[in-house]
């Protein structure tokens, strides 16, 4: 009988956690509050970050790491606000990892920043297991994804500090119960902060901004 030996030489998740811890210590030391903003494609991650930059960009110094599979479309949107932006293309990978963030941090003026938004790749599964060194984890879902989207992706809600149900102004048009999505998030994680938002009506945008400000001021 032929014996096959498989040697495991590297624990990818362990290595990521070690790198994430280094990132976290660096950001904490420099007083930078980092938000890992996760969500599927089209959930509204870019728009909510843009709204935050527009509202509090004069109060805080803000930087952005824009993660995507390819292209610089989101990064270019952020650059219009005259903030430092690093574009991170992952190629075939469906998430950012701590090592990529470590390289991005080397290119940012961290000494001058108060807030760092990390826009993760559009996905509700892959980013869950990969810490980046962030201060807060934010997950955004849109009502256009259906009101069962939260229950279908429980793990990402178990690990986040804030869950946002976005685009609630169109909930009726797509026959979705936004309150059910909020309730599902709280059932999965009773400790998570949940809010409903809409750029069109302005609902919840003040709450989103307040979450950022309170989190950031705690580091000052």
What does this structure look like?
This protein has 220 residues and is α/β, with parallel strands linked by helices. It has one domain: P-loop containing nucleotide triphosphate hydrolases (Rossmann fold, 3-Layer(aba) Sandwich), CATH 3.40.50.300. The protein is 36% helix and 18% strand. The protein contains eight helices and seven strands, in the order H-E-H-E-H-E-H-E-E-H-H-E-H-E-H. It has helices at 12-30, 45-56, 73-79, 98-106, 149-152, 154-158, 178-188, 205-217, and strands at residues 33-39, 62-68, 85-89, 115-119, 136-142, 162-166, 193-196. The chain has a seven-stranded parallel beta sheet, sandwiched between helices. Strand 6 (162-166), helix 7 and strand 7 form a beta-alpha-beta unit. It starts with 11 loop residues before the first helix and ends with a helix. Mean pLDDT is 92; it is low at 1-9.
Topology:
Layout: H1 12-30, E1 33-39, H2 45-56, E2 62-68, H3 73-79, E3 85-89, H4 98-106, E4 115-119, E5 136-142, H5 149-152, H6 154-158, E6 162-166, H7 178-188, E7 193-196, H8 205-217
Parallel strand pairs: 1-4, 1-5, 2-3, 2-4, 5-6, 6-7
Helix pairs in contact: 1-4, 2-8
SS strand fraction: 15-25%
The description of the largest β-sheet is: 7 strands, parallel
What is the domain total for the residues? 1
Task: Please write the string of helix (H) and strand (E) elements.
Answer: HEHEHEHEEHHEHEH
Q: Calculate the terminal CA-CA distance, rounded to whole Å.
A: 65 Å
Q: What is the helix content?
A: 25-40%
Mean residue pLDDT: 92
- Rg of Cα set: 18 Å
- The name of the CATH superfamily reads P-loop containing nucleotide triphosphate hydrolases
CATH-scheme architecture: 3-Layer(aba) Sandwich
Number of distinct helices = 8
């Amino acid at each position: 009988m032929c014996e096959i030996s498989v040697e495991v030489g590297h624990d990818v998740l362990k290595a990521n956690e070690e790198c994430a811890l280094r990132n976290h210590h660096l950001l904490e030391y420099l007083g930078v509050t980092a938000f890992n903003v996760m969500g599927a494609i089209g959930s509204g991650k870019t728009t909510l970050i843009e709204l935050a930059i527009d509202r509090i960009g004069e109060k805080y110094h803000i930087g952005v790491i824009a993660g995507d599979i390819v292209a610089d479309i989101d990064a270019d949107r952020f650059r219009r606000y005259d903030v430092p932006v690093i574009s991170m293309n992952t190629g075939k990978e469906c998430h950012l990892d701590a090592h990529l963030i470590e390289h991005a941090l080397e290119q940012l003026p961290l000494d001058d920043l108060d807030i760092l938004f990390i826009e993760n790749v559009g996905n509700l599964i892959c980013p869950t297991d990969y810490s980046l060194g962030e201060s807060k984890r934010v997950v955004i879902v849109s009502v256009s994804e259906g009101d069962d989207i939260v229950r279908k992706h429980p793990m990402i809600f178990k690990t986040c500090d804030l869950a946002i149900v976005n685009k609630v102004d169109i909930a009726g048009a797509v026959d979705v119960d936004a309150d059910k999505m909020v309730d599902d998030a709280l059932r999965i994680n009773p400790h998570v902060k949940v809010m409903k938002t809409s750029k069109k009506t302005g609902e919840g945008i003040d709450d989103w901004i307040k979450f950022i400000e309170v989190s950031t001021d705690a580091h000052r």
